[in-house]
Structure formats: structure tokens, C-alpha cells
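[Automated response] Your request has been received and processed.

Submitted sequence:
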Amino acid sequence: MMRTFSQLRADQRGASVIELALVAPIFGTLLVGMVDISRAYDMKLRLEHAAQRAMEKVQQTQSANNYTNVSTEATAAATAAGYTGSTVDVSYKLECNGTASSSNTTGNAINATCSSGQTYSRYVTVTITNTYMPMFTLRFFPTSNANGSVTVSGYAGLRVQ
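Generated structure:
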């Protein structure tokens, strides 16, 4: 009887199966994490591309202060990328002598002007935001929302004058 126990203790067959059973959940978790991260990054790239399409519309506009269809173009580009319900924020900024104008906060930066003799520059930025729901929600993750989703944004900016 003692001889049988010593033979079983020395037997190495089946050890690799036990090691695989211990390591497989870790590898599975890493795989799911990589897929989640790559899908979220794909969403970010598509939203940035949609924002850049809106900037192309700004570049095609001949009038210096005519940006009425930028938000519509950004929404259409995000919808074409497959992200309906995206939030589009178009902002305008005027700088006089390198300092942001106070009209930027009131939303009148499109038609605002600098004092005579000052150098000026105008900027248009588009930010498209949507939420990404990972395969496994992690509410304790620092950047996640209360429901476990993650906010993903695409950004594009352009100096127009």
C-alpha cells in the first residue's frame, strides 16, 4: 500500500492539465480586456474621423464666419460611422495678441473682433462624444460612469484666420 502512494506522488502525468486549468482564466481575462480596449479605441478613432470630416466642411467654406453647418456635418459623420446619439460640441475661439477674448465664453466669438492694431486668430473645434459599453462593466474603474459605460470623445480643431 505504501508503495502505491509513493508511485502516485512521483507520477508527473496530468500536471500540465492542472497548470493550464489554473492559468486559463487569467489568459481569458487578458483576451477579453484586449478586445474591449481595441473596440473602445476603434470607437475613438471613428469619432475623431467624424470630427475631421466636419473640419473639412469648415475648410471648404468660403466665408470666414459661416460655420452654420459644422454641427450638422459632424452629427451626420458620426451617424455614418455607426454611432447614433452622439453629442456634438462645436466651439469657436478668438485670440487677440495671443490672449483668449472674453467673447469666447458668451458664444459670440464668431463675430467678435479685436481692437485695431492687435494680431488675431480664430479657431473652430469639434468634439464628438459617445458612450462605450464594455463586455464586462467595471463600475469601480476610475474613468467609468455609474452604469459601467466609458465616455469616448473624438476631437478636431482648426485655425481659420
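Summary generated for your ticket: The CA atoms of residues 93 and 123 lie 5 Å apart. The chain is about 40% helix and 20% strand.
If you did not submit this request, please reply to this message.
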